[in-house]
Write a structure and sequence with these properties.
Shape: globular
Structural class: alpha+beta
Oligomer: single chain
Number of domains: 1
Number of strands: 13
Largest sheet: 8 strands, antiparallel
Strand content: 15-25%
Length: 302
Amino acid sequence: MSGGGDSQGSIGLTGAFTQPGVSSFVEFSNSLDSSLVTFGAEPPVSVSGGSRGSLDNIDVPHGTTIVATKFAGGVVMAGDRRATSGHLISQRDIEKVFASDDYSLIGIAGAAGIALELVRLFQVELEHYEKMEGAPLSLDGKASRLSALLRSNLAMAMHGLAVVPLFAGVESLPVDSDNATEGQIYSYDVTGGRYEERDFHAIGSGSSFARGSLKKLYDPASSESVAATTCIEALYDAADDDSATGGPDMTRRIFPIITVVDANGTRFLNDGEVGDLVEQVVNRRYELPDGPRATLQGGSNS
């Protein structure tokens, strides 16, 4: 570098950026300037709806239904593609499922803009921790960090700008021949309450219909492909009864986002893979419009 000047000063970094700090990106940012991270800030309007108005009657795009189910070795998470503003479809191909890091997934329901900001901040939070500590957070630690971020958004949630994520993953530790990888699923409420789900879960406006479908079709010993098909069936059932959930759009070729996390990391099924599974589900619905019937143990389901 010419001039022999201070390399630190030449790139405009202060001492705070070059000294050991906290492992939380949010805490580090707030220590420099509380305005750097806007997620979780107080609403920019008065609570009583005074001269600046209120958030209560604002229609913003909302994401809807996310489902997740375990399979032998990991978790499949899927989301429909519809976003709604009131009674209108505001977007037909929104993405609601993301890789939060190499070994975990996050799906979002609720106010879309706030939810997408949550995802980006959570991704940075996990990356920052790994850089500071030299090792990734445990899966339980990741779930706790997400809970803390949600809690900071409570003021916005009380005005209707709520975010409810679904989180899933596996431990990012080397897997040897004696240890099988088991996926975990975590659900949340708007206050940041965290709940570990046993086998499957769904969130969003169509979640009650999706959970009913998952309850009948879930198989703990299923393969990744069968688990993905089960998620598509659950989203189809949700769209059948919930107007805010989008079903497969065969004319526009808009299909659910299907993601997988296992010992090999996270993976998104490509359009061809998802399209093949969706077409199989849709074709079977011509014969059984209400979907496959669960097999009764020890007898027939005729």
